[in-house]
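[Automated response] Your request has been received and processed.

Submitted sequence:
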Amino acid sequence: IVAGLSFQATERLLLLADYQYTRWSNFDEIPLDFEADALDQTREENYNDTHALRLGTSYDLTEELTAQAGYLFNTPAAPDKVVTPLLPEAQRNQVTVGLGWRPVDLIEVHAAYQLLLQNDRRGRVRGGPSGQDPTTALNSGLYEFGANLFGTTLTLHL
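Generated structure:
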């Protein structure tokens, strides 16, 4: 579920916000079905529902040039006892900045930068004994993640 709103605060300033709820709790297990039935198993996941908040602003510096900035926050889906390489994500904060340039009505160019900051998180690097519930006692790995993301778009308005 996503809900958002925008507010034209001034002629040049646009404010935006949205909230997202994702029902990851529906993802409770992964059945692994092999040709040799003796290898069949079910991986417990029991993910949590997640929440995300996004805030943004767009400010027209001139008629052709627009500056944008934003902030994003996400909660993690995987509970501590099932953090694996499948989904090693943790709580994340993201900051974005960008510029948009529209020199003529037909052409628009945008460039953006996003800094993704994710908390470190302990997780499993191997499975536990077959038939046993997952436990944080197996969390011997440390998952670290961060990113510097750059993007650009060119839009032709025909």
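Summary generated for your ticket: The chain has a mean pLDDT of 92. Strands lie at 2-8, 13-22, 29-32, 41-44, 50-60, 65-74, 92-104, 107-123, 141-156.
If you did not submit this request, please reply to this message.
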